[in-house]
Amino acid sequence: MKHILLLGSCLLSSAAFALPTLFVGEAVNITKDDVQVIKQLYRQEGGVNKYAETAYEVEVPVYGTWGLTELDVQLTGDIASAWYSSNFAMKVSVYCNDEVVQTDSSYGLRHDRSSYVVKPQIRVENHPINAGCETVKVRMDKVGSLARMYYTDIASIDLRLYVTSKF
Fold this sequence. Notes:
By secondary structure, this protein is mainly β. The chain has one domain (19-164): Sandwich (Jelly Rolls), CATH 2.60.120. The protein has helices at 2-16, 146-151; strands at residues 22-23, 27-31, 36-45, 48-63, 70-81, 88-96, 99-108, 110-111, 114-115, 122-128, 135-143, 154-164. The strands form three sheets. Strands 1, 3, 4, 6, 7 and 11 form a six-stranded mixed β-sheet that branches. The chain has a four-stranded antiparallel β-sheet with strand order 2-12-5-10, with no helix packed on it. A two-stranded antiparallel ribbon has the order 8-9. A hairpin with a 2-residue loop joins strand 8 and strand 9 (114-115). The protein is elongated and about 55 Å long. The chain starts with a helix and ends with a strand. Keywords: Signal.
């Protein structure tokens, strides 16, 4: 009995960290916990490699696109840096099966010990999906020098992705 309870709790905990699944007509929320962090070697200090977080990426499976020829895609939300980070810029791109749907560049500011968020706005109507759309990928790239990327600490990502089709 003890082993069954342990197995059940493991299954529940692994389900809580699963990537979101998107059905056409529904929205999915994407947080920093959902994304894969992409890093690049910044420098070596005292024999230790220091890496800069250069981008964040999440790929979401999409269901319900069979027979559709067009999709509407909308991405909104906030990307915030830590209060001690400097001004920063992000290039946010949405892909359907590794084909770019649209890209938006947004800028965040630091003023009076407060960081203001990046607010990407992507809205595309009637995007053709001739080969279907099994996955939607959202990629967020820091913009600027590698040093700027190293010292800009992204504290939170809170995005809402909505994919629908007109009937």
